[in-house]
């Protein structure tokens, strides 16, 4: 089941974020940098702010949260950004990611495109997004937590661009 996040889900989302980051970035981002980012970005206060300013969806299995997606509301240009999508490692490949993306797209009425930015070395994530219909726009260098990373920018065209 996919549903909107409530304050009661905060601990579950924090757990999912920690486990997913550990699994995904165990070979590329030191664990202390991961935990510093997670503790800051998924603190109780930040989670309350996310629920207030953005949309957070929960994927449940038998009543227990196993994944989440966080995306911005459509801006004046018709754009939205998928800022986080995490599924517990034990539940990946169980269609929860696809269901979260589909539910998010259904909530973005009138939006033109959905962007996602991710570590370019996250091949499983990139494969997932490409399978969902996202298209690679750019790959660029940037700093993350003081470390050099290569970021891939993807877009999903909700409404196909009109060619002149």
From TrEMBL:
The keyword Transferase applies. InterPro entries: Acyl_CoA_acyltransferase (IPR016181), GNAT_dom (IPR000182). SUPFAM superfamilies: Acyl-CoA N-acyltransferases (Nat) (SSF55729). Its EC number is 2.3.1.189. Pfam families: Acetyltransf_7. Residues 1-156 form the N-acetyltransferase domain. The keyword Transferase applies. Gene3D superfamilies: 3.40.630.30. Keywords: Acyltransferase, Transferase. One of its GO terms (molecular function) is mycothiol synthase activity. This is Mycothiol acetyltransferase. It comes from Filibacter tadaridae. The lineage of its organism: Bacteria, Bacillati, Bacillota, Bacilli, Bacillales. The gene is mshD.
